[in-house]
Amino acid sequence: MRGKIGSRRGRPRGKHSRFDSKVLEYLVRISAKFEIHRTRLLNAIVDAWKNGKANCQELIIELRIKKKGRGIFLITKSDTVVAQFPISKHILEDTDPFSGFEHVG
Length: 105
Hints:
There is one protein chain. The chain is of the alpha+beta class. It has one domain (about 20-95). The protein has 3 helices and 4 strands. A 4-stranded antiparallel β-sheet has the order 1-2-3-4. A hairpin with a 2-residue loop joins strand 3 (about 70-75) and strand 4 (about 80-90). The longest helix has 16 residues, at about 20-35.
C-alpha cells in the first residue's frame, strides 16, 4: 500500500480532499505512463478548461462538461481512450497541486 494516497484511516491529511488526491494521483500515473512531466500535463488540462481542447505531446485532452466548479476531461491517444475523469476547478487554479505527490509514479 506504500505510494498510495488516502490509504490511511481517519480524516485525509494535506491540502486536498480524498477525491482530489485520487484525481491527482491518477494524473501522476498517466504522466509517468506516457513520459510527460506532470506539470506539463496539468497545464494542458488547464488549456482545455479554457479552450475546450488541448494537445500534450501525443495526447489530446478534451473538456467534455463544465459544471458546478468541475470539468470532466477525456484524454485520448490516436482515437484510443486513455482516461476520462472529473477534476475540480480549484486544482487547476492551485499553484502547486502536486506537492506531496513526489513518491507517486
